[in-house]
Every structure is written in C-alpha cells, then in structure tokens.
Design goal:
The complex is a heterotrimer of chains A (about 475), B (about 500) and C (about 100). Chain A has 15 helices and 17 strands. With about 475 residues, chain A is an alpha+beta fold. Chain A has three domains: about 290 residues, no CATH class; about 110 residues, no CATH class; about 60 residues, Arc Repressor Mutant, subunit A (Orthogonal Bundle). Chain A has a nine-stranded mixed sheet with strand order 3-7-8-11-1-12-13-14-15. The chains are: A alpha+beta (about 475), B alpha/beta (about 500), C alpha+beta (about 100). Chains B and C meet through helix 9, helix 10, helix 11 and helix 12 of B and helix 1, helix 2, strand 1 and strand 3 of C.
Chain lengths: ~475, ~500, ~100
C-alpha cells in the first residue's frame, strides 16, 4: 500500500469592521435585538438598490496587499443566485471572474519549518443574515420553523481562497492561526471567533505521496475553532484513504463537522448542487483601482507579524519561537518594545513579557499595555533582576505585589524585604562556614559527586531565606570546594 | 372658473393658470376627478384611486402662499404602480404584491412630491412591467380611449390611457423595452425614455436593471420637458444614476434647420402597417419643410436586438424577482409544510403566466452550460447595437422611426402568442439596449387610431431630442383628444373614416 | 429543443411551482420563444467584448457613515409571519 499525503485548501471569510454594511448605510452591530439594523436595501424591498462601501474596498485591499496579491486594475461585482431565507434578494452580491485581487502568497511556520501557501484570490461580498432553526435541538433536522434576523445581513465580507498547498491538519491550523493574526494586525477586523467574525471551510483530498495530481476533494464546513478544523481534517483523511485503499472512489461532496462526535458527515440533500447563474451585477458599476491609491494603501500597511518576527530575531537576538510569540500580536509586540526601549536587556524583557506579564493579561482579560503594570514598571522590575538587586523568584513575588498593592517595584522590594544579597564578603563567609560544617559532603564532592553543588547552594539559599544571589553563591561554592 | 378641458389642457398651461390665479388646485383636481368618474368605468386606467387624498391635498395647496408652493404645485399626476410610495399600496400589477405597503418612496416620486404635485392615483401596468398591452396585469385590462376595444399599449398603459383620456394632466411611466414610448404611441400622447442613468431607479420595482428608466407621459412635448426636469438628476441611492451635464430645457424653437435625421431602413421592415408607414413618411416631409434633412441609413444589428433583449431582460428579471419569496413581505401561500413548498407555491400562485415565462427564460439563459450561448452572446450583441448607434451619430444628429409597427390592437388579439406581443417593441428595444434617450410623439391617425413618431438622440442629448420633437409636434398639429369609441360594439357600428370595413379586416387578422 | 425535464429543472431553480398543464404549456411556449432567441447564435462575434454596463461610469461608492435604520416595526410591518421580532419561515425541507 502506498503512503498517502493530504492536500488541503482553505476558504476563509473575514467580516470587516467598517461602520456600515457593504451595500447600505445600516450600522454594523452585534448582539442587538433582531431586525433593528435594517433598511429597504438589506431587507431587499422592491426597488431598493446597493451602493458600495468605500472603506470596505480599502480594507479588502489591505488584506490583498498583506497577502502579496496582485490587485487587479479593474474588478466587478456579480450576482450569485440561490434561494435561502437568510439571503433576502435570493442572490448574494459577490465577485466571480473579475475579483479584487489574485495570486498572492502567505508564509507561515509549522514548528521550525517555514511553509508558503499560495493565495488564489481575495474578493469582496456581503454576508447573509442569521437564520436560527427553532424547535427541539436548534439543529436543522427536527425543527418546526426557522426565524431570520437581518441585522447581520449585508455585513462586508472578504473571502480569501488558498491554493491546495497545505500539507497537514497541523499546518492548516497554523496557517489559519497566523493568517488571523495578520488580518487582525491590519485593523480591518477583530477576527473574533466567538462572534463569527472569521469563518472558514476546508477542501481536502488525498493522493499517493509524491504525486502531483490532485484527487477528488470533499468540502468540510462548520468548524468554528482551530481545534475543530484540525479534528475534522484528522477524521476525514483516514476516511478518504480507507475508501481509496478499498478500491472505491471519493464523492465530491460537502461534509458537515459535528463537534460532539469530532467527525464529519454528508449534509442532507437540502444542499443540492447549486447552479449559481453568476452574471455581472447591473446595479453596480465596475471599480477601477488607481495604482497610486493602491501604493498609498500599501505604504500605510502596519508591520505584519511575519516581518516583525524576523525583525525581533535580528534586532533583539531572540529565538524564532520567542520572536514569533511576541511578534504575533500588535499590542503585545508594542508593549515588549516599549519595555526594551526603557533600557532593558531584550532577552530578559522577552522572558518577563512572555511569562509573568502575558499570563497576567490573559487572566485579567486585558490587552497588553493596559492596567497598572506599564512598560516602565515592568522594565524597572526586570532591571532589578538583571542588576542583581533581586532574585528571579523574589521578583515574581514583587510582580504579584505590584498588582495587589499598586506600588512601584523598588518600593515593594524594600517594603517586603526582598532585596537580593549580593555582598560577596558576607556570602563568602556563609559558604566558608557551611563548608567547614559539612566535611562529609565536601569529601564526597571532591571524590566526584558533582551534583552536591546543589546541596551547598541550597543550604546557603535556605540560610538566607532565598535572598542570596544564587549565581554568586554557586561561584563561591565552587571556588570554596576546589580550593 | 369653467373651461378647463382635461382632454387638451397641458401642464405648462395649467401652471400658468394656477400662478395667475385663474384656477385653483382644488378646481384643477376636481376637473380630473370628474373626468375619472365619467370615463374610468370604460378605461380602467387606475388600480387604485386616491381621489379623497388628492382633493384634500389640493385644498391644502390652495391655502399656501404661492411663494412657498413647489414648482409643480397642484398639478394632478398619475403614477405607474411600480414606483414604491411610502404608505400607499404598490402592487406592480401583481398578485404577489397585492397588499404590499412600501416603507419608503421612490426618488423620482419623492422629487415630484417635493414640488407638491397632486397624486390622483396608481395606474395599471403589465405585471412587473412585462408586456406591451397591460393585459398581463393581475387586476384589470386597461382600454385605449381612442377605441375601447383596443389596448393602450404597455407596460405603462395605465398612465398612457389616463393621460389620453384626460383622467390625469400627466404622469410617470417606466420603460425597459418601449414601455413608455409604445403606449404613448398607441394612445396618441407624448412619452419619453431618458438616457439610462438620467433618472434614479431607486424605488422603481426592478424589471431589467440595465434597461429600466422612469420617464414622463404627457400631452405635449413642453410638458414632457417640464416633468423630466423635475425627476432627472444624480441620486446617491442609485449607483447607476448620473449627474446630468445640462439642465433640461422646455423647448420653444419651431424650426429644424441644419439638423440631420437618420432613417434606419431596418425599422421600416415588413411588420410596419401601411397606415403607420404613411404617417411616418408624411412626418419626414414635414421635417424637411422645417429645414431638417432626412436620409436613409443602416443600423445593421437591429434584427438581433430583439433576441438580445429577450435574453438580457428576462435574465436580469429572473434575479430581480427572486426576492418575491414570501419571507419578508408580499403574498405567502397558505399552509405550506416546508420551505420549498412555501417558495414554490408562493411564486407559482403569486406570479402571472407572462412573468413566469420570462423568469423561466431568464433562468434558463443564465444556467450552467447556457450562459455563454445566451447571456454572453446577448451582451456582445448589445455592444454591437450600441456601436451601430454610435457610428450613426457621427453622420446624424437624430434618428427617427415609427414608434410601433402598428396602431393599437384589439384586446385579446395577441395574448395567445407571446412572440406576436414581443414584436410590438421591435423599434423601441434597441434604444434601451444602447441606453439612449428617445421620445414618441403622435404624428397622425391611421384607421382612426394614433400613430407614434420616435426621435432618438445620443446619450444625454435630451434637450436636442425635445427641441426636435417640439418642432415636429407644432407642424403635425395633432389633436390629442380621443374619441372614446368602442369598435367592439358590433360590426355595424358607424364611425369616422369608414370603420365598418376596417373592423371586419381587423376581426379577420386577430 | 427544451424538454419537460429541462423545464422542471429550471422551474425548481426558480422556485416556481408549475401545475402539470402549466408545465406542458410552458414547454411549448419556451421552445417557441427560444427558437427565435436562438438566432442570436448565428452571429460570429467571438472577438466582441460583452457589454455588461451601458454607462461609461466607474467607481461609484459611498462614505462609511451610518444612517438611521428602519424601526423594527417598519422592518416587520409587511412580514407574513413574525416570531420574537424575527421573520418566521417554515422548516427546512427534508427532501
């Protein structure tokens, strides 16, 4: 039996956070009572007409440029026709063969490997309304009726379609994670997954390892977390392999992910094959993209996570892992750089930012940069550690005290008596006393049991209630024992 | 003050009378309401009459100082029932919107309201503006005031008949393939389709988005210009509307010196009735007497224009009418057990046969495997038709033709054969495909029924088109008052011009 | 030639219920109309650019400024069926 390799492509939808909908001036909202943000246009009343949201075009262009796409000189909207209660016009205004942008790529990391996924296209469209199936389980089957809330209908969407360049479920997860971080950095969407601001479908097929031909693919829908995406793919791959190894053929079908079982199953024939009958939207005129304007948008792009990660590695000497973690999110990255700018060793700053500080902001539910622990305060604390004034473990206590007592680090060290003892003379005396009092251990160490260093250092730390500078103690102990 | 003749009064004259205090909005409105009372039982132009509101509003206008009145204050107007008007049931001539009350008002209508027109009522139309006779209305068949046994044309037949019958001073229609011009022609009045984009489509219940335009139906060319001036202009709610590069002028010149008129031979093909051809050629001679030069020319892709239209229009319509699904407004079939049944029965029961036919053709023409052969091909023909006109306008200032190949035909005579009905628009359809402005003015009678003369101009040449139309109108001297006869009242009925023989001939041809 | 099966497929796409006699009649009518429309295929115009927009206008858009929406009452005013402020529709079809 041959080895099989999966071939994965993704279609991602991002809800843009403009102030108004794609084709009308209703405000975007979330969580408001149903049907309180609608108008004749987004309710598709007779005679209503769409008008393009300029900022949505700008936001979509930012995404396209961040993905290194070619923004087409001209793009056109098309009608995609099908009937569904959440689609009031019974067509979606979308883009078909003249989309906003084509042919980009996105580099991302899976562990230590850098991968590149080509982007087939980026286009603009409008979101459907919210359809809720009422009745027992809230699922389609068994519901007695459905209700529609048109508040969301008409929200600007950007669709990103990749080439089938992704080679594993883990890679798909990383791609999506890093793509999302990039889009968030652009300021066009908060990509909040609970609120459905970013959604995706996956296309998956398998082929003999090393082959360049594509197999028949299935489409997976309804995976609304990265974990579910990975699970769905991990369930579908062996299924396809099983079918092929048994001599069968893969049906090109749409599969729905069930989070409870962690598997996918075919959608019922409610989703018959769609004939979308695309044709150019006669109510809208083409968009001709001014090259000078595109360059303005490009110039105004913020530093993206991938570039920032590189820069952190070079500029601060961080490992790729650390640079990646710190560089991924704008607020955290900016906070980190502020800490360093105060005049702190970048690696120490990195450890503290990724460690204590990030844990604190996550738990407190705040963004980096908010709260009492400002960059200056954290920097002050880090300096105390790197300067030897306080030990690492004592500093963790100081951090905690900062949150509880809202006082400056230096003051807290003094108040709680956490200063590190670095007085060489005093420590040397302690070491000497200890060595004198532990002849057996000394003999054992000199006979080869090098791990007994730990005993001596530990004893000194105990005597000093943990306040001795452990590095210095270590040196002094070694010196005393080899003497 | 008596002496207001609704069969001859123009808006320009009515305005003058109002401004000079020789009549009042109340008297004016009453004149038309009385005419409606006298003739509506025969004509059936209105789906909904707003007589009480009209009278009340007219009274209010009379109380306002002249200085604060709108430019069209007090002028009694008919509105085709496919332009949404807030709070007023708007049906599009369809059962599916039979009880639909819009929550907003079409821009063109709002602009007229802003000028204080008096809306007399909502006029009949072919359902969703699909048709050339008004017989496709779900509610009633409108009759042509020139011969009540005949159709007023369509789809704006209700407005045309109302204006012709003196039941309204003037009115709005919409034109997708000739639906203003052809009824104007059949009813002996003036009708104009502006350049595509000149008038906002916001609030016009869409039939074919790339072809539809709202336009005036009036007794005179000057009235047409006046009404057009107040509905035209850029609207931010319609991405396909444009700022006019000019102000619409009410024409006054009566000569045509130096103007070159092209006569496309393709528009004078076999289907044109001898009487229509005769009136048309007489009008060409009048043009020459006025100093214009007429010359035959070619619009070589004309024969394919009809086919292209009957792909593009239904295709766009199939999508535009998909929103009528029973979910958010309008008719919903009762007792449907699931969504599919609701959709299919709502639309199956709510739409009439012509609408269904067109939705089917449009859906088919766009469907997988057929798009290139039909829709794609039609879009190419459309470009060629537009280029034909573009080339023609290098050598000519205006292009003229009969508006309709025939005069008004008998009610019921073409309903069995959709193709026969489609032929009514052979001379008007290419103009919509090219997005050009065109006006129809009456140029005489044939067999006692009006003949229409069409003048087509370059894009945004409304002023030139109206100027020429005004001059020709003056020379023709057509009396727009209809006869209200009814040729179906027996073969032996007597009428002017030896109608008996002609009735018999028509009965055979039907 | 368009068949009844074609017509049934298209009617389903368009969500139009056609009674059996309508289906038969529609097939005949559509065949006739398509017969005439088909003449458009006579033209050899492969190199002609299709024209989707008759106007020479591009780049019409609006600023991203919110305007008042309809009140909920107005939004639901014409609704055939309402539940809890939302438009109610029958359950999804099982076929």
């Amino acid at each position: 039996m041959p080895e099989w390799e999966p071939v994965i492509g993704l279609e991602i939808h991002v809800e843009l956070q403009t102030k108004t909908k794609m084709f009308c001036s209703c405000a975007l909202s979330f969580g408001d009572p149903p049907n309180t943000h609608t108008c004749p246009v987004c309710l598709a009343h007779p005679g209503a007409l769409p008008v393009v949201n300029k900022r949505a075009v700008e936001f979509a262009t930012r995404i396209a440029l961040a993905l290194d796409c070619t923004v087409q000189p001209r793009n056109v909207f098309h009608r995609k026709n099908y009937f569904y209660p959440d689609l009031p016009k019974a067509y979606q205004i979308s883009q078909f063969d003249e989309p906003l942008a084509v042919e980009g790529s996105f580099s991302y990391w899976v562990g230590d490997e850098q991968h590149t996924c080509r982007i087939n296209r980026v286009h603009m469209e409008e979101d459907a309304a919210k359809l809720v199936h009422a009745g027992e389980s809230g699922r389609i089957a068994g519901s007695e009726y459905s209700v529609v809330d048109f508040n969301r209908g008409g929200t600007p969407l950007v669709e990103i379609v990749t080439e089938p360049d992704i080679g594993s479920p883990a890679a798909a997860r990383e791609f999506l994670n890093q793509l999302r971080a990039t889009v968030m950095e652009l300021g066009v969407s908060d990509c909040n997954m609970e609120e459905g601001r970013v959604r995706w479908d996956a296309n998956i097929s398998v082929r003999p390892a090393g082959s360049t031909e594509l197999g028949v693919r299935t489409e997976l829908k309804n995976m609304n977390s990265f974990r579910f995406l990975q699970q769905a793919l991990e369930s579908e791959i062996p299924r396809q392999v099983g079918v092929l190894e048994a001599g069968g053929r893969i049906e090109q079908e749409t599969l729905h992910f069930d989070p409870e079982t962690g598997t996918t199953s075919p959608l019922r024939s409610k989703e018959e094959a769609h004939d979308y009958r695309y044709f150019p939207e006669p109510d809208l005129v083409p968009l001709v993209m001014d090259p000078a304007w595109i360059e303005e948008v490009r110039a105004a792009l913020p530093e993206l996570p991938a570039a920032r990660t590189q820069r952190f590695m070079l500029q601060y000497g961080l490992s790729r892992y650390d640079a990646f973690l710190l560089g991924e999110s704008g607020p955290l990255a900016r906070f980190y750089e502020q800490v360093v700018a105060v005049g702190v060793d970048p690696k120490a700053a990195a450890n503290w930012t990724m460690g204590e500080y990030l844990a604190y902001t996550n738990e407190a539910g705040i963004d980096p940069g908010q709260g009492f622990v400002t960059a200056e305060r954290l920097a002050a604390l880090v300096k105390l550690v790197t300067g030897g004034a306080v030990s690492f473990s004592a500093a963790k206590d100081v951090f905690r005290f900062m949150l509880e007592e809202h006082a400056e680090p230096a003051d807290l060290v003094e108040k709680h008596g956490l200063g590190q003892i670095s007085d060489q003379t005093a420590l040397a005396q302690l070491v000497a006393d200890l060595v004198a009092a532990s002849p057996e251990e000394v003999a054992a160490y000199r006979a080869g049991k090098e791990q007994l260093i730990g005993f001596f250092v530990g004893q000194v730390m105990k005597t000093t209630s943990g306040r001795a500078n452990p590095k210095l103690v270590n040196e002094l102990v070694r010196a005393a024992l080899t003497a | 003050m008596s002496g207001l003749d609704p069969l001859r009064l123009t808006a320009v004259e009515a305005k003058r009378l109002l401004v000079e205090g020789e009549t009042s909005a109340t008297e004016l409105t009453k004149t038309y309401l009385d005419q409606i009372a006298a003739h509506e039982g025969d004509v059936h132009a209105f789906i909904q009459l707003c007589g009480e509101e009209a009278a009340r509003y007219a009274a209010r206008i009379d109380q306002e100082a002249t200085a604060v009145r709108g430019a069209l204050a007090g002028l009694p107007t008919a509105i085709k029932d496919n332009m949404v008007t807030e709070g007023v049931v708007t049906t599009a001539g369809s059962r599916i919107l039979q009880n639909y009350t819009p929550v907003y008002t079409a821009t063109a209508v709002r602009k007229l309201f802003d000028q204080h027109i008096v809306m007399l009522g909502r006029t009949n139309l072919d359902e969703f503006a699909m048709g050339s006779s008004t017989e496709n209305s779900a509610f009633q068949v409108t009759r042509n005031p020139w011969d009540l046994a005949t159709v007023p044309g369509g789809s704006s037949g209700g407005t045309a008949a109302a204006v012709a019958a003196g039941e309204a001073l003037w009115g709005l229609g919409s034109d997708t393939g000739g639906s203003i011009r052809q009824p104007a022609s059949l009813c002996g009045i003036v009708g104009m389709k502006p350049t595509y984009g000149a008038v906002s489509r916001y609030g016009l219940i869409a039939f074919a988005s790339s072809l539809d335009q709202i336009g005036p139906l009036t007794r005179s060319v000057a009235d047409c210009a006046l009404l057009l001036r107040h509905i035209a202009g850029y609207d931010e709610c319609d991405s396909t509307s444009v700022r006019l590069p000019f102000e619409v002028e009410v024409p006054t010149a009566d000569r045509l010196d130096g103007l070159r008129f092209g006569v496309p031979v393709e528009y004078l093909a076999e289907g044109v009735e001898p009487g229509v051809r005769a009136r048309f050629e007489e009008t060409l001679r009048l043009i020459e007497e006025l100093g214009g030069r007429c010359q035959e020319m070619h619009l070589s892709h004309t024969e394919y224009a009809l086919a292209a239209y009957y792909i593009i229009a239904p295709a766009e319509a199939s999508a535009n009418l998909a929103r009528f699904d029973g979910v958010r407004y309008g008719y919903r079939a009762a007792g449907a057990e699931d969504l599919l049944e609701m959709y299919e029965r709502t639309r199956g029961e709510g739409f009439g046969p012509e609408v269904k036919r067109r939705i089917m053709i449009g859906t088919y023409a766009l469907s997988s495997g057929y798009y290139e052969a039909y829709y794609g091909q039609a879009q190419k023909v459309r470009r060629l038709v537009k280029e034909d006109f573009g080339a023609a306008f290098q050598d000519f200032d205006l292009i003229v033709s009969p508006t309709s190949p025939t005069v008004a035909f008998k009610v019921g005579s073409r309903t069995q054969d959709p193709l026969a009905m489609y032929q009514s628009d052979a001379c008007t359809i290419p103009v919509n495909l090219a997005g050009l402005p065109a006006v129809s003015i009456p140029c005489g009678l044939s067999d006692g029924l009006p003949v229409g003369f069409q003048i087509i101009g370059r894009a945004f040449s409304e002023n030139l088109v109206l100027r020429a139309a005004h001059a020709v109108e003056g020379a023709v001297g057509f009396d727009t008052a209809p006869t209200f006869r009814d040729s179906s009242a027996g073969v032996g009925s007597i009428g002017p011009g030896g109608l008996c023989a002609q009735d018999a001939r028509e009965a055979v041809d039907a | 030639m368009i068949t009844e099966a074609d017509v049934r497929y298209v009617a389903r796409l368009a969500r139009l219920r056609l009674e059996p006699d309508e289906l038969t009649r529609m097939t005949v009518e559509l065949a006739k109309i398509l017969g005439h429309i088909d003449k458009i295929g006579e033209l050899d115009i492969a190199d002609v650019q299709p024209m989707a927009h008759v106007l020479d206008v591009v780049n019409v858009s609006r600023a991203d400024v919110a305007r008042a929406s309809l009140s909920r009452d107005d939004a639901l005013r014409s609704a055939p069926a309402v539940t809890d402020g939302a438009f109610r529709v029958p359950r999804m079809s099982q076929r």
